[in-house]
Specification:
This protein has 31 helices and eight strands. It is mainly α. The strands form three sheets. Strands 4-3-5 form a three-stranded antiparallel sheet, with helices on both faces. Helix 25 runs parallel beside helix 28. The longest helix is centred in the N-terminal third of the chain and has 24 residues.
């Protein structure tokens, strides 16, 4: 195959990835916001894979044709999966059906199918043929693991009366999507690639993986009324209360708790329409008409009707908010109308032109976000996160400091982490980490730690340049800054792909300096990070070259019990299958402190020391 064709096929895959990411950036993830965001984030992580495929200089596999002249099946599978994902994202962003519950079921099932298709397509790539780097392979493996977990999660979202019949035609036409055919009184589903794929295979697999059920439904079956996996007990249960269509937000497809009216007369949940506007949109999501103004007018009548409907049907609104009141743990309610009004006023000031006003508002948001979980929820609901992210790059140091600390406080509430990532905060946080005041840098490092607690965020943060900035703070920061940087680096380096980045950023030099610092204030942190890095081959070489082995042996003699434990673990990782390092241990007299450690160390230290002594004995017999 010609090199131009190879480049074209890889470029096509890259362009599809960019198209998918573009859908999310344009604000199209409104209806199933979290599902869309997760899917986009996972697909975005495949960029490095397709770049390596494009740049591959060896034998041309990528467009290798079969006897019929068509591309390899795995290439077609990837293209099909990405097209299906793109089509699903576009169509789910436009969904505002009257029967919202039914629509939610169908879209959830579509997300499950697309996720399954993408995971299988990634599994078919012949990675060894393209000399894909170890870091990228691990990144893809992590994405596949996340996709498999998502398949199980989507299975629980597809509720009992899901039917394959009546899928939206727009989805069928736009994404080379599934279609329904009937053959010998049995409903089957097929898609365009591969030809042998059928929905029977998919459904059986989903049933095994996530207890997915297809309940009795006349529309599912062919003319003879056959159905799949009907459950008599389920059919006997009373139906849940049907939410009136007017009570459902056209963006979220969820019950509105704070409905507001826009200039076109349409009503939306405040937090969702506010985020729509914050992303730069100036049209009505439902009618696509241009908004003459961006004023959001509270719909008090509808809010009261929704609250009464919830009471009548014994339904608790999300987050415990009911008509301006927040449900407390003891079941009583606290009036938060005043809090909501105050927070919204502050968010408006955050976006103002006055430097002094923005600074004061950021300071107040920082204080409020520190006090309680309730405040963190309300501040995020008011649309503060995108505005705070914008303030990270202002010239005013105090405003920047308050903004990054506010984001740190907001990130403590788990649901806000996704909003912060969706707002594209990481590059700006890294900029603060590099050039902000010392307090701002400290809090930026703590924010990086908080966000990277989610596995998928470890990859995004690692690729953002944050590791280099954290290593610099670890070397030159204040005591608190060094501790914040160490915590963030430890968490990021749990992901194997970030270990090489940390090594290349000079982390071993910084850690060795911490180990030999006479104050001994960060020996624990240095050893903990090094123990995570020590199983990485590049790290092993760097640690040994830096002259760390004598320092570790000295810690075996004089360190605290936890220090001895980590030092022995690092030495064991360095010496496995490395006879030169073992010989170095023997020459430096490690046998005596190791023997002592097998008697008086922690349980883990005893195991590591015993293993090292066994390796040393074997070396003597060679």
């Amino acid at each position: 195959m010609a090199g131009a064709d190879h480049h074209h096929r890889a470029s096509e895959l890259l362009q599809l990835v960019h198209d998918v990411v573009g859908v999310d950036k344009s604000g199209a993830a409104g209806v199933f916001r979290k599902e869309c965001t997760d899917l986009v984030r996972r697909i975005a992580l495949l960029t490095h894979l397709f770049e390596e495929l494009r740049d591959f200089k060896g034998r041309e596999f990528l467009n290798a044709s079969t006897s019929s002249g068509s591309p390899e099946p795995w290439v077609s599978d990837l293209v099909t999966a990405l097209l299906a994902a793109k089509g699903l994202l576009v169509n789910s962003s436009c969904a505002a059906p009257v029967l919202a519950e039914e629509a939610r079921k169908k879209i959830s099932f579509h997300f499950q199918c697309v996720t399954w298709k993408l995971e299988k397509a990634l599994g078919g790539i012949p990675y060894d043929q393209f000399k894909i780097s170890e870091e990228v392979e691990e990144q893809v493996a992590l994405v596949r693991s996340q996709l498999r977990r998502a398949i199980e999660r989507y299975g629980s979202l597809v509720t009992r009366k899901m039917s394959f019949h009546g899928l939206p035609q727009s989805l069928v036409e736009s994404g080379k999507w599934v279609h329904v055919v009937e053959d010998n009184s049995t409903s089957k589903m097929t898609d365009s690639l591969p030809k042998s794929f059928s929905a029977d295979d998919l459904v059986h697999k989903l049933q095994r993986m996530s207890n997915f059920r297809v309940a009795e439904s006349p529309s599912l079956c062919s003319t003879n009324g056959t159905h799949v996996d009907g459950d008599e007990d389920m059919n006997k249960k009373p139906d849940a209360a049907v939410i009136p269509a007017d009570f459902i937000c056209p963006i979220s497809l969820e019950l509105m708790r704070d409905p507001v009216i826009v200039a076109t007369g349409q009503t939306y949940e405040r937090s969702y329409i506010q985020r729509w506007i914050d992303c730069g949109n100036t049209t009505c999501p439902k009618t696509q008409q241009k908004l003459q103004n961006l004023t959001l007018t509270p719909n008090y009548v509808l809010r009261s009707l929704v609250a009464q409907w919830c009471i009548d049907n014994n339904i608790e609104q999300p987050t415990g908010l009911t008509n301006g009141k927040l449900k407390k743990s003891d079941g009583s309610f606290r009036d938060i109308n005043g809090d909501i009004a105050t927070i919204r006023a502050l968010v408006s000031k955050l976006a103002g032109r006055s430097i002094e006003e923005r600074r004061a508002a950021a300071s107040e948001i920082r204080s409020l976000s520190k006090r309680s979980t309730d405040n963190r929820i309300l501040i995020a609901e008011a649309g503060a996160i995108p505005v705070l992210v914008n303030l990270l790059t202002v010239d005013d140091g105090l405003t920047q400091e308050n903004a990054v600390t506010s984001i740190l406080n907001l990130s403590i509430y788990e649901n806000n982490k996704g909003f912060i990532m969706l707002a594209g905060a990481v590059p700006s946080i890294v900029q603060v980490l590099r050039s902000g005041s010392m307090e701002a840098r400290e809090n930026a490092a703590a924010t990086i730690f908080s966000l990277s607690l989610a596995d998928e965020n470890k990859i995004i943060v690692g690729a953002s340049g944050a590791i280099q900035a954290l290593v610099e703070l670890l070397q030159n920061g204040s005591t608190r800054g060094k501790k914040d940087a160490a915590t963030a680096l430890f968490n990021l380096c749990i992901y194997h792909g970030n270990k090489g980045r940390a090594i290349r950023a000079g982390i071993i030099t910084a850690l060795l300096k911490m180990l030999t610092d006479s104050s001994n204030c960060m020996v624990d942190e240095a050893l903990t990070i090094m123990s995570v890095l020590a199983n990485h081959q590049e790290a092993k070489v760097t640690i040994v070259k830096a002259g760390t082995i004598p320092v570790l042996i000295d810690l075996l003699r004089t360190g605290l019990p936890r220090n001895k434990e980590n030092a022995s673990a690092i030495l064991l990782a360095l010496c496995k299958r490395e006879t030169e390092n073992l010989a170095c241990l023997s020459r430096l007299g490690a046998v005596i402190p190791l023997t002592e450690l097998t008697k008086s160390g922690t349980e883990r230290a005893k195991r590591k020391a015993s293993s090292l002594l066994e390796h040393l004995r074997k070396l003597q017999h060679v």
